[in-house]
Amino acid sequence: MTDTGPSSARPAPPGCPAHADAVRLAGLGYQQTPAQLYRALRREHGAVAPVLLDGDVPAWLVLGYAEVTYVTSHDELFARDSRRWNQWENIPPDWPLLPYVGYQPSVLFTEGEEHRRRAGVITEALECVDQFELTRDCHLIADRLIASFAGSGQAELMSGYVHALPAQAVVQMCGMPASGADTQQLVDDLRISLDAAEGDDPVAAYERVGERLRQLVKDKRVGPGPDVTSRMVLHPAGLSDEEIVQDLISVISAAQQPTANWICNTLRLLLTDERFAVNVSGGRLSVGEALNEALWLDTPTQNFIGRWAVRDTQLGGRLIRAGDCLVLGLAAANTDPQIWPDSHVGAENAAHLSFSNGEHRCPYPAPLLADVMARTAVETLLERLPDLVLAVEPEELTWRPSIWMRGLTSLPVRFTPVVQ
């Protein structure tokens, strides 16, 4: 066995990652300020830390920028097929993270040539999305949403705007109505399956998402249209209905929740950071910088599970056993002091890992489409409500209790009422 990681200075811990120093990632007191957790883990463990997932299931959290880049660039060592996991015998059928790691015939879990075939279908379907038309659609959606609260002089933006806009945009892009009870149920179930609150059933929610999209695929086989789903159905690669359903789940979930939280985190930055206050006031000067800085400092997808070791190897000086699970610490990597030694993140630099890296990164042009949705959402809101301010003190804002997604529980604002 050879050391394949970029660093091998630290001694490997004995046995599996569930040793005495492992840190529980569930129920953390650090959820409001995860950066503190990442700093503490780095001090104690270096770039790769032993952690415990829900139910004390052992895994590794990869914290270093170089190490995350290495893992995502070496599929032959750290692969995506979760059936390799050496912990399956300890996973109950109602495990809350099962929607993340339970093997599905999805592009997320494919490897090699099969992954390139499936990702190619998604890429070509997304490439046909006209970005000018998407911008127009997002403007129209934004105008409708803003009109619903503009006359009141106050709003809670997370529920009334931030989550609704990308949700409506992406389902419309995939050939569903932008609004309606059916669409809202799909969006709610996606949220539950990816980031369940107490009392939610993420496994059942995931099953409902699959059922709705199976019907969508059947409908598009009968009557295709100018949408992503139809282009996947008609693609010469000849994907099965179930393959398309699973890949649509990946496309919609990746576009909706992360983009919504990207909008949220950018708006929080613009409304709380005095560096942007003068420049933004009703204009667009700093929106692009704020969008990029939010990806560095408050990336929507904080951690991603995961990769599974193909064979015994080493990473960051840690012994990684065949079948071990690695959680990609995207937020920790983005703020790694090894790349920002002066603790200053340059907003003009776009080398963040927020869309991951390597063959399994978000397929092109998904990041560009997400940028269209996020930028249009932020700019339209500031143009329509130029004196928008927080309705609470910045320190009263609270983050969702999740180690996976980074976003606020609510974003209350006030402004001069606008007569429609």
TrEMBL record:
<protein>
    <submittedName>
        <fullName>Cytochrome P450</fullName>
    </submittedName>
</protein>
<dbReference type="InterPro" id="IPR002397">
    <property type="entry name" value="Cyt_P450_B"/>
</dbReference>
<comment type="similarity">
    <text>Belongs to the cytochrome P450 family.</text>
</comment>
<dbReference type="InterPro" id="IPR036396">
    <property type="entry name" value="Cyt_P450_sf"/>
</dbReference>
